[in-house]
Design a protein that fits this description.
Distance between the termini: 61 Å
Low-confidence stretches: 1-22
Radius of gyration: 20 Å
Order of helices and strands: HHHEEHEEEE
Mean pLDDT: 86
Shape: globular
CATH class: Alpha Beta
Helix content: 40-55%
CATH topology: Nuclear Transport Factor 2, Chain: A
Oligomer: single chain
């Protein structure tokens, strides 16, 4: 009798705890979509395409870097145009997702990146724009 009650309580606890953890999990399909967006961003960097970098962001996106804060696609495009002008040899950008979590209806990701000049890390909030994921906020550390 005690064993059945103990098993019932354990089952109930597992039933209550599992949904709490699974809410933070991102499905493999969504993770692939985010990886595709990051790859598109990396390709824009490798091609020295500031408009391509900005296109990965929503119109009101915010990018925070050690040299300043850039709001909106036009400022983000100018930011990356300056990066490419200052670091003309920048290439071989590769981004790797370290962690990816649900963040209400958005996603929060932590990535590391490397390129021929070194590397760094990013904290990114991704949001849906239509059927596609885009960058809403990105904090860059290099």
């Amino acid at each position: 009798m005690k064993t059945r009650i103990l098993l019932a309580v354990a089952g109930l606890a597992a039933g209550l705890i599992t949904p709490a953890f699974s809410q933070d999990e991102v499905t493999p399909e969504i993770r692939l979509q985010i990886e595709a967006l990051n790859q598109k961003f990396d390709e824009a960097i490798n091609n020295h395409d500031p408009a391509g970098c900005a296109a990965c962001c929503i119109a009101t996106a915010v990018v925070i870097t050690p040299v300043g804060t850039f709001v909106g696609q036009q400022e983000i495009e100018k930011c990356y145009a300056g990066v490419f002008h200052s670091f003309g040899t920048l290439s071989h950008q590769v981004d790797k997702i370290a962690h990816l979590y649900n963040f209400y209806s958005d996603l929060c990701g932590f990535t590391t990146y490397s390129n021929n000049l070194g590397g760094g890390a990013r904290s990114i909030i991704y949001t849906r724009e239509g059927d596609a994921w885009k960058i809403m906020v990105m904090v860059v550390k290099y």
